Amino acid sequence: MSMQVALVGGSGKLGSIIHAVIDELEGFEVVRVLGSSSDLAELDGADLVIDATTPQVSVDVVRAAIERGINVLVATSGWSAERIALVRPLVEDAGTGVVFIPNFSLGSVLGSALSAAAAPYFASAEIVEAHRETKVDSPSGTAVRTAELIADARAEQGPVSAPHADQRARGQQVGSVPIHSLRRPGVIAKQEVILSGPGESLTFTHDTVEPALAYAPGIRLAVPFAHRAKGVFVGLENMIDIGIRS
């Protein structure tokens, strides 16, 4: 018998990709597609809730699923470490699982992991991320996650060097790392992590060219993982062996 999935935000760009992947994924079936304004009582009876809405709606979807004892796969961007920390006690009390995926692209996850691995060796780190003009949140969830990983990797060295960070043009700091967000037509998703030290710099760049192809492998990993998860997990790095767990 297939696991019944309630997909919230299923008519959006990412939601449509997730729906198409699940249609071909053995053991899972989307039985309910909800919009951002749908009655969340429609989640009743689902084996897994997948949230692909907006940062404002996502909080209510996650809370409603936890209250019903249903595991959640969160594909919505905008969940910082601070916001996720508020969810952890609710998940522990309910005995459920919530999996946050800032980016379903395996290449993006690897780029963030490599950036974090290199960060202790460079005093300076800055992130430039670009998305299409319709993306409502900034910085992106991927950039926030990358900055958090860099900060964790530099726990012994301390914050990165970010002079004049009080000036707005220097970007928004996350874990001391300045993030610069571009929202413009002609781009899907791109992130550059620029690490700098005396006499040299190292740049990790990830480009999403075709979202349906880029995200599908990660979605195939995340859906069954989220269904059986207990507790809170962040990122595809929990499903592939790249030496990072959270």
Describe this structure in words.
The chain is an alpha/beta fold. The chain has 2 domains: 3-103 and 211-238, Rossmann fold (3-Layer(aba) Sandwich); 106-208, Dihydrodipicolinate Reductase, domain 2, CATH 3.30.360. Helices cover 33% and strands 26% of the residues. The protein has 6 helices and 11 strands. The strands form 2 sheets. It has a 6-stranded parallel beta sheet, sandwiched between helices. The protein has a 5-stranded mixed beta sheet with strand order 7-8-6-9-10. Strand 1, helix 1 and strand 2 form a beta-alpha-beta unit. Helix 4 (106-118) packs parallel to helix 5 (141-153). The two termini are 32 Å apart.
Write the layout of secondary structure elements.
Layout: E1 3-8, H1 13-23, E2 28-34, E3 48-51, H2 55-67, E4 71-74, H3 81-94, E5 97-100, H4 106-118, E6 124-131, H5 141-153, E7 172-174, E8 177-183, E9 189-197, E10 200-208, H6 211-228, E11 231-234
Parallel strand pairs: 1-2, 1-3, 3-4, 4-5, 5-11, 6-8
Antiparallel strand pairs: 6-9, 7-8, 9-10
- CATH class term of the largest domain: Alpha Beta
In CATH, the architecture of the largest domain is 3-Layer(aba) Sandwich
Please trace the helix and strand order, writing H or E for each element.
EHEEHEHEHEHEEEEHE
Order the strands across the largest sheet as they lie in space.
Answer: 2-1-3-4-5-11
Shape: globular
Number of domains: 2
The radius of gyration is 18 Å
CATH superfamily of the largest domain: NAD(P)-binding Rossmann-like Domain
| Count of helix runs | 6
Largest sheet, described in full?
6 strands, parallel
Determine the structural class based on helices, strands and strand pairing. Answer: alpha/beta
Helix content: 25-40%
Q: Which regions have little confidence, pLDDT < 50, spanning 5+ residues?
A: none
Q: If you consult CATH, what is the topology of the largest domain?
A: Rossmann fold
